């Protein structure tokens, strides 16, 4: 573990230079933030409050070290936070109706020696898990799209809003395709053993569709995809709004 971490740090410095150090610090900060979330929830702090506060902090950690451009930061942060707010509302409803929170019968061997009445709301924990699972993809897409669109504005300051929107959406589509592949491959990689379990034990289609672990995994995948699609559109429209209302941009013109 230590050697892999050292190797990652060396490679980041070799490839990205000083910016690689900032990225490594950002990764370290995110890791310790997630550890703090687990400890606070284990100490019976409200999972939703802890999750929302740390989700906002993790968005800042994911975006700020990756760029020093104030306009890129503003558009990426604003669009990411707005999308996460929308995802939070959708997640609350989805968890309520999916009944996929907590443990399933496949977890019996791992948890049978533990005391289950631990005084923590599993639906709220699942909301936090689903929100965090979408956070990385949303932040990554927002900063990629924001960087590309502002690069266009830098070299073509007289470009019309319609042309900028068309170019920005094209950048967004490419990022959506990349993010979808990442999310899909991550989904199959994470739940390959579960799929083998379901097949080898001859689960019926109805049992598979009602499996709590699979239901939670599908929710995680769908929310991540929805978040990436939403941020691709929202980032472009926010940049156009920002272009007309930012005083520094008007001064540059």
Structure write-up:
- This protein starts with a helix and ends with a helix.
- It folds into 2 domains: 45 residues; 184 residues, Up-down Bundle (Multidrug efflux transporter AcrB transmembrane fold), CATH 1.20.1640.
- The chain contains 11 helices and no strands.
- The chain is globular and about 60 Å long.
- By secondary structure, it is mainly α.
- Helix 7 packs antiparallel against helix 10.
Task: Please summarize what this structure is.
This protein is 82% helix and 0% strand. It is mainly alpha-helical and 253 residues long.
Provide the CATH top-level class of the largest domain: Mainly Alpha
Number of helices: 11
CATH fold name of the largest domain = Multidrug efflux transporter AcrB transmembrane fold
Please tell me the CATH architecture of the largest domain by its name. Answer: Up-down Bundle
Uncertain stretches: none
Number of separate structural domains: 2
Round the mean pLDDT to the nearest integer and report it: 81
Q: How many strands in all?
A: 0
Find the structural class using helix and strand composition. Answer: mainly alpha
Helix fraction, binned, reads over 70%
Give the biggest sheet.
none
H/E element order: HHHHHHHHHHH
N-to-C CA distance: 51 Å
Shape: globular
Q: How much of the polypeptide forms β-strand, as a percent range?
A: under 5%
The radius of gyration computed from the alpha-carbon positions, rounded to a whole number of angstroms, is: 21 Å
């Amino acid at each position: 573990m230590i050697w892999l971490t050292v190797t990652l740090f060396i490679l980041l410095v070799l490839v990205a230079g000083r910016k690689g150090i900032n990225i490594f610090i950002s990764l370290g900060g995110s890791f310790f933030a997630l550890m703090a979330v687990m400890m606070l929830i284990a100490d019976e702090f409200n999972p939703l409050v802890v999750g929302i506060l740390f989700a906002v902090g993790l968005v800042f950690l994911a975006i700020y070290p990756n760029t020093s451009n104030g306009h890129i930061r503003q558009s990426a942060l604003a669009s990411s936070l707005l999308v996460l707010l929308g995802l939070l509302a959708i997640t609350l409803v989805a968890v309520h109706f999916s009944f996929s929170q907590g443990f399933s019968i496949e977890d019996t061997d791992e948890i049978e020696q533990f005391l289950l009445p631990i005084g923590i709301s599993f639906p709220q924990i699942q909301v936090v898990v689903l929100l965090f699972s979408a956070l990385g993809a949303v932040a990554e897409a927002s900063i990629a799209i924001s960087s590309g669109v502002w690069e266009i504005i830098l070299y073509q300051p007289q470009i019309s809003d319609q042309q900028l929107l068309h170019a920005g959406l094209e950048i967004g589509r490419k990022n959506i395709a990349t993010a979808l592949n990442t999310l899909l491959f991550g989904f199959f990689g994470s739940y390959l053993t579960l799929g083998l379990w379901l097949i080898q034990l001859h689960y019926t289609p109805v049992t598979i569709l009602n499996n709590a672990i699979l239901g939670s995994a599908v929710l995680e995948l769908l929310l991540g995809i929805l978040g990436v699609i939403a941020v691709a559109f929202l980032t472009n429209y926010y940049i156009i709004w920002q272009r007309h209302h930012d005083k520094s941009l008007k001064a540059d013109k």
